[in-house]
Amino acid sequence: MSSCVSCDENSVSTAGASSCTACNAGTVANDDSTKCDECAAGTYRDAHMSSCDSCDENTVSTAGASSCTACNAGTVANDDLTECVNCKRGTYRSSSMVSCEPCPGNVYEQEKATQCKVIAKVTVKVSECETRIETSVVYGTYTWTATDPEIHAELPCLYDGKFKARKFCTASGLFSETDFSECPSAVSTIVSDLLQEIETGSSETQEEMSDEMKDMTAVEGSKLSSSDVQKVSLSIDTLINLPDSELSNNTVDNLISTIDNIQTNTDVTELQDQQASDELRESAVAIIRAVALQNNNDVLKTEDSIALGIAAVETTDTSRMKQMLTLAGDLNVVKGSTNHKDDAKTFFTGELTTTKDEVLTVVYYENDKSFPSKTTSPKSTDENMLLKEVAHSIVQVGVDKKEGDASTPDGLSLVASVIADINIISKTSSEILPLEAHQNVTMTFKVTDKAEKKVLSFSKRKTIVRQKLTCSFYNTSHTGERGWSEKGCETRSVFNAETGVTEVKCICDHLTSFAVLMSFTSESNDKEELVSLVLLASSLFCLALTAAAILPNKKLMKMKSQKINLMLVLALMLSIVFFFLMDSFVAAEEEAKPSIPCSIIAFLLNYFWLCQLSWMVVEAVTMYLAMVKVLGVYMSHAMLKYSLVGWGLPIIFPLIGVAWGGADFADPKTCFIKYPYGIATFYGPVVLGVVISWVLFVFIVKVIMTAIKTQAEKTDEAEIKMRTVSGYGIDPDI
What we know:
The chain is α+β, with helices and mostly antiparallel strands. Among the domains are: 1-86, Ribbon (Tumor Necrosis Factor Receptor, subunit A, domain 2); 213-294; 526-728, Up-down Bundle (Rhopdopsin 7-helix transmembrane proteins), CATH 1.20.1070. The protein contains 16 helices and 35 strands. The strands form twelve sheets. Strands 19, 20, 23, 24, 25, 26, 27, 29, 30 and 33 form a ten-stranded antiparallel β-sheet that branches. Strand 15 and strand 16 (140-144) form a beta hairpin. The longest helix has 33 residues, at 677-709. The protein is elongated, with a radius of gyration of 35 Å.
């Protein structure tokens, strides 16, 4: 080498090194690639991973771990995923449950319970709720003392003792979520003072007050309560509507940054408050409307989680004009744009017509934190974990379903695209206009490929998991249920094989906030599974009867063709036996690795299914030699040679798969060979064997048809009989 080069990923070196050393499993290279640091407790890294990942749900690890250990039934992982702790008295957790659940009435159990015991006609008094210290970034730290069941506990609010925080001790001896609805937050005074300053007038300019609001939400955004969010929204609206003032570019940027800080930093629980979220979204619309009314050019303002765009019409023509909404292209955080930067401008496009007196405005939201809905799960900071929980929950629901029953579990829909809030504003009246009759808005969203593949790659035998993409709008009507609805929207989706992204075209007959929702359905196949098991068991029984009929008959056992049939029967029986065993080792987790028994089953299934095919080909060859070639063909040690082909040749292919794929050879969700190894180790040999068998079959049929045409001659009839006996081992006269 002419110069020093950087070490590869997860390999390190010291000064003057001539090579790099790979980090062991459980460690990861530091930023300078000079030292291997241990993975933190609660995380792990095996030799095939690029970074330390968090342990899955109810699995734990110590520092430097290469894998995580599952918690036993009756225990649950702590918040740090470092220790399995016992379920509290009055609760239980079986191996299939996610968390420790309270026992129902008249059912009770001790600590570390895996199930609850029914106590008939006995009233059991559960122990009191234990003392607990609770820390909230928004409301402060509270110490809840031991409380008797079915009693409301109260504590003075930390930042204003006139109000109370409340917590209920359930009959099971567990505290409920704390009710902080009366309590001010740690920054309520700051927010109130800022609002009062704006409302009463100040020596500061509009731009200075907006800058102060931006800085406050940047530093204290995580401490805002839902009430604080409402006050900030009111401050924005008041600032915009100050008399005789025009919004400067810096003021607009500050106000947009304020909303972005709230979207990014404020706890999702506070933003899911209906009134707080409504007022925050209305403030965003108020900003863009104010800019649109004082600006005649296209505008795009972007932040990390929000962007505001204006498509102005510059023409004297009064006819409707076509406007393309490609404004979200500069919003770097739009889903998937980090993986498709060159194609960012097409992550959202739209078509709508406006007149010269109308302005098209769009507010883009990167997440749905300020769109509360009973039918969706708000965005998690760890999207992979959220999707994993979705898939796990679907399977848990699907296991108990009846055949054909399919539904989406509550709260498991995801907003899978950027959210676009579209409005038409009249420049003359400054009002937001509805769409004209028979007019539609057409939008094309690109759904993140990561979310789609993560969920769809998860499967478990006996349960089918399906994904559905739906164009939806956010319904804020007070007459119906608030939340996402597909009414008035048509969905058309196309998967783009080149980019690996699903493009969803939405055609809607009204204007509001639009997005693509990803929902999931599960269908249980228990009846089909039972039918399959019955048929396989019947096949195994009949094959056993066939073997039992051939083995005691010494005359049949002397015939080469019957020995071949017996070998084929044995291969079929072994294949069915291992197929029965396969279901016991199928993994139930999305990213699980194949266990050793699962890998062995995959290897043996590959082998014995190829053995079936090999013995079928051997049987076809013997029939070909007997009926097509000249009579009297002799092969020394024929059964030994046939056995080498029937039992020996198939072993080569699964060995190739193991050498090629290693530990990755088997699919943990099916316990069979994984793509692409199966192409070389199973599907290729199967196609070759079928082709050989068909070629031999054609030759044999040709000989039989020729002999039938000349069957009047006695010698031909005798020859047919002789060849039939030799080929099939069956005397046609019997």
